[in-house]
Recover the amino acids of this structure.
């Protein structure tokens, strides 16, 4: 069984930085991609960034140049480095792992950007 545990959320001022982590456990050797999604109050969950098994990444336009997704395969950890944070980045951030047609999600970590 695959499990994902996120950490690293918190409250920061606009312009600040946070680094989210997601530790994966279980049978993840055939994963297709991992990614970060977010959901703000009253809004649908949206994709933020993906990293594929070959290392290719993509980002939603609103975070390009500010966020960076990476993965450490030695400790099965996914990261999201978030810089120049804006109030509109406030949301619950979720880690996702995809294996074939099966999607696994973490419990989420709150990110609040406020002065």
């Amino acid at each position: 069984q695959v499990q994902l545990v996120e950490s690293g959320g918190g409250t920061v001022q606009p312009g600040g930085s946070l680094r989210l982590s997601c530790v994966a456990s279980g049978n993840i050797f055939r994963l297709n991609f991992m990614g970060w999604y977010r959901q703000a109050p009253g809004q649908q969950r949206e994709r933020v960034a993906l990293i594929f098994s070959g290392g290719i990444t993509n980002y939603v336009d609103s975070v390009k140049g500010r966020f960076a997704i990476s993965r450490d395969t030695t400790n099965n950890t996914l990261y999201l480095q978030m810089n120049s944070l804006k109030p509109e980045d406030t949301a619950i951030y979720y880690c996702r792992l995809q294996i074939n047609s099966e999607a696994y999600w973490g419990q989420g970590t709150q990110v609040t950007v406020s002065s």
